[in-house]
Amino acid sequence: MLDLFGHPFSSYTWKALIALYENGTRFTFRMIDPDHPENSAELERRWPLKLFPLLVDGDRQIFEATSVIEYLHLHHPGPVRLIPDDGDVALRVRWLDRVFDNYVMGSMQAPVADALRPEGQRDAYGVDKARARLDTIYAWLDRELGGRDWAAGDAFSLADCAAAPSLFYADWVQPIPASCATLNAYRTRLLARPSVARCVDEARPYRAFFPLGAPDRD
Fold first, then answer.
1. Cα–Cα distance between 175 and 184 in angstroms, integer?
2. CA distance 211 to 209
3. Closest C-alpha to 20, from 112, 82, 99
4. Count of C-beta atoms within a 10 Å radius of residue 77
5. Cβ–Cβ contacts within 10 Å for residue 205, how many?
6. Among 64, 17, 2, 11, residue whose Cα is nearest residue 195
7. Tens digit of pLDDT for each residue in 104-132?
8. What are the b/e assignments for 154-163, b being 16+ CB within 10 Å?
9. Any residues with CB less than 8 A from the CB of 54 and at least 6 apart, and which?
10. HEC string of 61-80?
11. Cα(67)–Cα(181) distance, rounded to whole angstroms?
12. Over the stretch 71-97, which tens digit does the pLDDT of each residue have?
């Protein structure tokens, strides 16, 4: 049995959960919160940085959400092939995975992290720069995703597992403009996907945790 350490409101935990839900992979969720100190202690024992998600499979442990999905693809495959067999298509999937993690998720996290800082230690310049980067990547993605149902083409993939949480939360931080109709439609398709909708619902009780205030939608 697989164990996944994480939290339902964590964007990167979502990414791993979506892959597991897509294929109906059996696993035990090990909640990281004050009510489950034994899980936090086990996470720290296995990974001193205490970052999640962490997947444990027997004597193997895999951290970083992308690597978790790559591991599942190799050792616990299911009917949904999240990494295509075609090398060129797989390259696009992995490339877009990094785009969503680094330039959407990474940019979104800057204003969120800033809101958690004490007064007097805020970084208004950094927040403005991150918001501008989100606007830039939104426009780029709107062009790049044109004519595709999913990030890399017709099939749901690792790239979409990355896109779902990053676009979900990024739109809360810096709304995707109406002019990006393709990107907005893609976000809507993602949220309608059963695996993603399940993550949204499981995270719903924790929305008060969002430092900038969760909008009354989604």
1. 10
2. 6
3. 82
4. 13
5. 10
6. 17
7. 999 999 999 999 999 889 989 999 999 99
8. eebbbbbbbb
9. 4, 5, 6, 43, 46, 47, 61, 62, 63
10. EEECHHHHHHHHHHHCCCCC
11. 31
12. 999 999 999 999 999 999 999 999 999
**Contact predicate 23/78, CB 8 Å:** yes
| 37 cis-preceded (ω within 30 degrees of 0) | no
Report the alpha-carbon distance of residue 74 to residue 207 in Å, rounded: 34
β-pairing, 60-63 vs 54-57, is: antiparallel
Tokens of 5: 């350490």
SS3 content of the chain, % helix, strand, coil (to 5): 60, 10, 35
Query: Measured in Å, how far apart are the chain's first and last C-alpha atoms?
Result: 33
- Asked whether the beta carbons of 168 and 9 are under 8 A apart, the reply is no
- CB count within 10 Å of CB 27 equals 18
Taking the C-alpha atoms of residue 83 and residue 66, their distance in angstroms, rounded to an integer, is: 11
Write down the pTM of the prediction.
0.95
For residue 74, count other CB atoms closer than 10 A to its CB.
Answer: 9
> SS3 for 173?
helix
